[in-house]
Amino acid sequence: MQLRCYRCGWSFAIKREEIAFALKALQESGGNHHDARCPRCRHANSLSLEQLQRAAPKPEKAEPEG
Q1: Which residue of 17, 18, 43, 51 has the fewest CB atoms within a 10 Å radius of its CB?
Q2: How far apart are alpha carbons 60 and 41 in whole angstroms?
Q3: Which of 50, 35, 49, 48 is nearest to 5 (CA)?
Q4: 11-13 and 33-37 as β-strands: parallel, antiparallel, unpaired?
Q5: All domains of the chain, ordered by start, with CATH?
């Protein structure tokens, strides 16, 4: 997932593993946003639960046996 820092304008990416971890943590805690830190200025950029769900990796469908 590509992001742009709201403070300095730096473009950076968040890995799929981080997105999956953030979704799991938000669902367990009942939160509604995740703070992604900019690697350049360390400003917290808020990502809503809906944004994370859209960017989350799709679960793989199991092949029917037979």
Answers
A1: 17
A2: 36
A3: 35
A4: unpaired
A5: 2-55 (3.90.1280)
